[in-house]
Amino acid sequence: MPTSKQSVAKERTGGSSGKKAAAVNAKKDKKIAEKIKPSDDELKNAVCEILKEVDFNTATFTDILKLLAKKFDVDLAPRKAGIKLMIQEELTKLADAEDDEEEEEEEEEEAAEGEEDGKRKAVKV
């Protein structure tokens, strides 16, 4: 038979430990959901958007991480390493695309110069 102290304790805690366990489980589920949110695809898309807007001369990894955290309203510190890799991959893609564009422009200029030289030779004849 419970003593009066035990009865008072049960009244204060809500009468059973089942409710307390459910509350703890709900908090754990929320933390797990926060860890999953945002998905890698959502992060990658957000990284691409941010990289289009930032000044590469002044922006740091920490700046980008803060912008991502603000966008998703979640602490991304536990995922910092993965996000850093995403940013590096996207920067590499951007640099490769820029190099490809420069090569295409150079090839077009060389082709145009070759056509001009061909026209000059034809005129001299």
From TrEMBL:
Alphabetic keyword roster: Chromatin regulator, DNA-binding, Nucleus, Transcription, Transcription regulation
Location of the DEK-C domain: 37-92
Major place of residence: nucleus
GO cellular component: nucleolus
One of the record's GO molecular function terms: histone binding
Subcellular location, record wording: Nucleus, Nucleolus
PROSITE patterns membership: DEK_C (PS51998)
Pfam families linked to this entry: DEK_C (PF08766)
Start-end of Acidic residues biased regions: 97-116
GO biological process: chromatin organization; regulation of double-strand break repair
Region feature Disordered, mapped onto this chain: 1-25, 94-125
Top-rank lineage group of the source organism: Eukaryota
InterPro entries in UniProt: DEK, DEK_C
Protein name (database record): DEK-C domain-containing protein
Organism: Genlisea aurea
